[in-house]
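Q: My collaborator sent me two sequences in one message, no labels, and asked for predicted structures for both. Can we handle them in order? The first one she listed is below.
A: Yes, handling them in the order given. First sequence, followed by its structure tokens:
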Amino acid sequence: MSEEKSTKETDAWFTLSGDVNSDMVHRVFEAVSGMSENGVETAHVLIQSNGGYVSDGLCLYNFLSNSPVKFVMYNAGAVASIAVILFLSGTRRYASETARFMVHKSHATASPGARPDALNIIVEGLRADDARTESILRKHIELLPEQWAIHQYSDLHLTARDAKVARMINDVADFAPPKGVHIRNI
């Protein structure tokens, strides 16, 4: 059997969309279990998500980064907020020319009439989330000082070209499964 045929049999193609939440965590756990059982070595995953819950995104980042399957991530539209951390779990990462990324600090809404001790707990939780996500961002990407300054207080938007300069992606390229492959939705 040729090496090219062997590689095709160990690669698989997937789409993953929606909010980063406990439902997505469950779907990804199930999908990776199936990948492992079916001998998938490399999973090509197109992600479309505007974000969700920080803890769920961190769980997925840690799980996929240490999975027996190698992940190649793609952005063909928008990967934002905690979904960027999920995206960074890929060993290789690509984005379409028209794709965008957005990163920002954590945020929360307090209940009306919340007492100072409750507000303090919320603030401490947000600071902990920001420290965890920023350490992952700094491990994988190289933003300019001006970009880090924007990230400190606002939403930082990156085009595919910006993401390449920041080393968030390996190259500007489309999710393009070979003709005839089965594309599974996670």
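Q: And the one she listed second?
A: Here it is, processed independently of the first:
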Amino acid sequence: MIDWSHFTPWSALAGGALIGLSAAWLILLNGRVAGISGIVGNLLAPGGDKGWRLAFVAGLVLSPWLYRLFAAPPDIRLDDRWWLLIAAGLLVGYGSRLGSGCTSGHGVCGLARLSPRSLAATLVFMAAGFAAVWLMRHWIG
């Protein structure tokens, strides 16, 4: 069931616009796709161009602190078992490696470039997410 009292279309629209704008800037100005798994993976690999990758990851890490300057932080509560969260994180990492990219790279940048491979990857990501929610609500949860 959808909790309509917490539906925030304007902030969601603003967040989506900022993600799209930043992805467009990165590919236009740097020729790079804003896929988080590739950015972080190549940041940890030897050699290569680390400067912009460090700046990108620093922006991801520091942005919640910047947000706190302007608004109260949201109330975050984790109700699931810790081992499920760890398993979910490992499965997402494995899926990103298997799919040669993550949802940000394929779903945001790849679909914008009309990449058939990114469409297939995004459909698989979404189907796996739907299946995981269904399993958690009906079998495991």
